[in-house]
């Protein structure tokens, strides 16, 4: 890994800032042409950068970075480039399993009609629900309250809905 510290500029539209050096890593953010980033190191075809504005660190494909400051006027789209951009599908970033688990729990709790779905919940008077919660009582409603209650099948089913 080659260490470098310099300001470079993003080339292209909606360039992905990734969590690691490769297309398999999750997308942290997207940048448009001209965005100034600080080049921290280069690892093969990937560059580790830090955004000058947000100070967020991540990885961008090296061929999408340039040392030249972009022109102040944006290049006009030609009919051919507009047509080509329509053909490219936009890739939706993959949501992590932990975020999906939290969303499943939140949906389960919000779908409970009473005031004590989980032991950690508070009732209308502000008291902790504890053993009075629906989660603690057998039979009837069974809200999902803890990450350990969420199965792989539930995560996969949630992801298929997205």
What does it look like?
The protein has 162 residues and is of the alpha+beta class. 20% of the residues lie in helices and 24% in strands. It has three helices and seven strands; from the N terminus they run βββββββααα. The strands form two sheets. The protein has a five-stranded antiparallel beta sheet, with no helix packed on it. Helix 2 (97-110) packs across helix 3 (152-161). The longest helix is centred in the middle third of the chain and has 14 residues, at 97-110. It is elongated and about 65 Å long. The chain starts with a strand and ends with a helix. The model has no long low-confidence stretch (mean pLDDT 84).
List the keywords.
20% helix, two-stranded antiparallel sheet, 7 strands, 162 residues, 3 helices, elongated
Give the SSE layout:
Blueprint: E1 2-10, E2 15-18, E3 27-31, E4 36-43, E5 46-51, E6 57-61, E7 65-66, H1 79-87, H2 97-110, H3 152-161
Antiparallel strand pairs: 1-4, 1-7, 2-3, 4-5, 5-6
Helix pairs in contact: 2-3
């Amino acid at each position: 890994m080659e260490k470098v510290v310099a300001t470079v500029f993003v080339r292209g539209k909606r360039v992905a800032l990734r969590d690691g050096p490769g297309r398999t890593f999750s997308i942290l953010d997207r940048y448009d042409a001209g965005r100034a980033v600080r080049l921290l190191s280069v690892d093969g075809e990937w560059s580790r950068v830090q955004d000058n504005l947000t100070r967020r660190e991540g990885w961008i494909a090296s061929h999408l970075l340039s040392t030249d400051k972009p022109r102040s006027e944006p290049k006009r789209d030609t009919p051919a480039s507009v047509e080509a951009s329509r053909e490219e599908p936009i890739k939706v970033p993959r949501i992590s399993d932990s975020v999906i688990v939290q969303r499943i729990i939140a949906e389960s709790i919000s779908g409970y009609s009473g005031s004590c779905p989980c032991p950690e919940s508070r009732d209308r008077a502000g008291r902790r629900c504890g053993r009075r919660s629906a989660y603690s009582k057998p039979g009837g409603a069974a809200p999902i309250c803890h990450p350990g209650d969420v199965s792989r099948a539930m995560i996969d089913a949630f992801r298929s809905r997205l």
